[in-house]
């Protein structure tokens, strides 16, 4: 079953990859969320070895190169994303792998100063295995930083501007999106609670340094935010965080 989900998602990501060129990439942590320029979670990246989980079009890795990272590595399930990332990073020498994040593909252990993931981690079919692998890639003292939809956000819907709870936050289940980005690209996603993310990090051995339920970025201070029922809207984001950001450390 897991293999089927991964294969389905892989094919669909190949189809929608072109919608994600430079979208959900650092310094952005997610829609309307505070940015890395505001939060400064990464600190000094000079000469650091970094690994991007779900690198997409490679723009976050490009950002890391700009911050002086010495080695750029990444894993993404989609071959189309790899092609896009190779283009984005054409002046650099990244190591880009096309594979599911939940698979041990022999990436070096105890090697990276920082592993990060911007809006990709929630696609994993096996959160425990993914966090264990990430923990194993990090050096002692290495940091793992990721952002994803705030786990309650998919349940926060709006109708004529009235916010209501859709479905059950309690029930952790898979959801099938029949179409994605308006394309015939069915995807299966696992819905998890906030506590599941936190507890799986702890079980993998991490010490959690920060959990951020992001407020709206100051970039939108002067934006109107009219009533909207869209999935991501400034109107909703001002009432409820679109994005959670977690920073954890491998203390050993
Ligand atoms: C919203 S995009 C992330 C964009 C990326 N942060 C950037 O800087 O451009 C989500 C990415 O997760 C990847 N993905 C989805 N499921 C995956 C999995 N199981 N393992 C690895 N990558 C996966 C997709 O191919 C897609 O590139």
TrEMBL record:
<feature type="domain" description="Methyltransferase type 11">
    <location>
        <begin position="51"/>
        <end position="146"/>
    </location>
</feature>
<protein>
    <submittedName>
        <fullName>Class I SAM-dependent methyltransferase</fullName>
    </submittedName>
</protein>
<dbReference type="GO" id="GO:0008757">
    <property type="term" value="F:S-adenosylmethionine-dependent methyltransferase activity"/>
</dbReference>
<dbReference type="InterPro" id="IPR029063">
    <property type="entry name" value="SAM-dependent_MTases_sf"/>
</dbReference>
<keyword id="KW-0489">Methyltransferase</keyword>
<dbReference type="GO" id="GO:0032259">
    <property type="term" value="P:methylation"/>
</dbReference>
<dbReference type="InterPro" id="IPR013216">
    <property type="entry name" value="Methyltransf_11"/>
</dbReference>
<dbReference type="Pfam" id="PF08241">
    <property type="entry name" value="Methyltransf_11"/>
</dbReference>
<keyword id="KW-0808">Transferase</keyword>
């Amino acid at each position: 079953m897991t293999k089927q989900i991964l294969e389905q998602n892989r094919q669909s990501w190949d189809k929608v990859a072109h919608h994600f060129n430079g979208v959900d990439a650092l310094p952005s942590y997610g829609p309307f969320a505070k940015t890395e320029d505001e939060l400064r979670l990464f600190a000094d990246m000079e000469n650091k070895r970094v690994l991007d989980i779900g690198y997409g079009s490679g723009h976050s890795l490009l950002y890391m190169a700009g911050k002086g990272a010495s080695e750029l590595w990444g894993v993404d399930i989609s071959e189309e994303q790899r092609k896009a990332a190779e283009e984005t990073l054409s002046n650099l020498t990244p190591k880009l792998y096309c594979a599911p994040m939940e698979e041990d593909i022999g990436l070096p252990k105890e090697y990276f100063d920082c592993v990060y993931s911007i809006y990709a981690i929630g696609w994993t079919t096996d959160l425990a295995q993914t966090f264990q692998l990430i923990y194993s890639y990090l050096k002692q003292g290495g940091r793992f930083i990721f952002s994803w939809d705030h786990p309650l956000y998919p349940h926060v819907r709006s109708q004529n501007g009235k916010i209501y709870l859709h479905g059950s936050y309690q029930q952790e289940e898979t959801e099938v999106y029949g179409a994605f980005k308006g394309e015939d690209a069915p995807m299966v996603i696992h819905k998890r609670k906030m506590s599941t993310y936190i507890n799986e990090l702890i079980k993998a051995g991490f010490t959690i340094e920060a959990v951020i339920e992001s407020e709206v970025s100051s970039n939108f201070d002067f934006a109107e935010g009219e009533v909207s029922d869209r999935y991501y809207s400034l109107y909703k984001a001002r009432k409820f965080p679109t994005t959670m950001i977690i920073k954890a450390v491998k203390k050993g």
